[in-house]
Amino acid sequence: MKILKVVTIGQSDIGKTKLIAALRRKDFVVTSKKTIGVDFKTYRIKQDKQEGYQFWDTEGMDPGYSSTSIRHVYYRNADVVLLCFDPFKKESFTALSEEMPLLKKNVKSTCQFVLIETRSDDDSAEAKEKRTVTEKDIEQFQQEHESETSPVHYQQTSAKNGKGIQELHTILDDKFRALYPNDDLLQASSEHEPQPQQHSTNYSFQFSALTKIAALGSVALGIAALITASMAATAFLAVPLLIGSAVLGGVAMSSFFYHRYTQDPGQSQPVAASSPNV
Questions:
Q1: In 3D, which of 221, 226, 212, 229 has the Cα closest to residue 246?
Q2: What is the CATH number of the domain that holds 144?
């Protein structure tokens, strides 16, 4: 299976999910649900093939977002990272620099970084005056973070009017060719087939929810067992309560470690391999 792992990062409400929809040849959606954890979405180069792009749409980098112990799993072995920022929100640009050390520790050594300016659909002089991210900021970011094996490209985009989407697709196509030079799916014309409706799964949210529910249930049953054991009339109920607490504790631990250590794209491709709709 030939998969190009593409990770998008950036703060909330700057258009990451809409950008991925545009890259997957979807119609522009005015509103979208906030991403919790990470969503997986795929783009098949050919409908009858398993080869294509696997997009990891991560949650916004806002206060309280996923810890580094979780985020490093999202970034591990990434082939391309789309560093998204809103040119009218300087903090969204600054957050990217703060995340780069963790990214570089986990992505492939040949990872392609693309600095994505979202919402670039207004070229008026008034809009340019409102920008808080300057060309100098962008050039400085590129100089600080690019290397011979991991260059940092810059691309203005708009999921609303399609600006820069084809150029971004070309970058992904070129990276796919570099990884799989003998693959005949991408011809020089780079014409992609229209995509059927595809399925995405928020695995991080599912496993996090299961872990939390099981852990809370285990604690609750443990407390109930202690209270029951202290009462002579109901002491016989303490044993089944303790067993239930232990079982739920085991479920919580299993879910936690499965989520942390096995959701590695280098080992499995959950969406591309298992979803009947892609």
A1: 221
A2: 3.40.50.300
Q: How far apart are CA 109 and CA 147, in angstroms?
A: 10
Q: Tens of pLDDT along 182-208?
A: 766 555 334 444 444 344 444 444 445
269, amino acid identity:
Q
* Range(s) of the domain holding residue 250: 205-274
Chain centre distance of CA 70: 11
Q: Confirm if 192 and 169 have CB atoms less than 8 A apart.
A: yes
41 & 148 share domain = yes
Closest to 10 in 3D by CA, of 107, 131, 103: 103
**Domain contains 225:** yes
Q: DSSP code of 276?
A: T
CB 207 within 8 A of CB 270: no
User: Which tokens hold the place of 235?
Assistant: 């002491």
What digits encode the pLDDT tens for the residues 116-174?
999 888 888 888 899 999 999 999 999 999 888 888 999 999 988 889 999 998 999 89
Amino acid at the residue 19: L
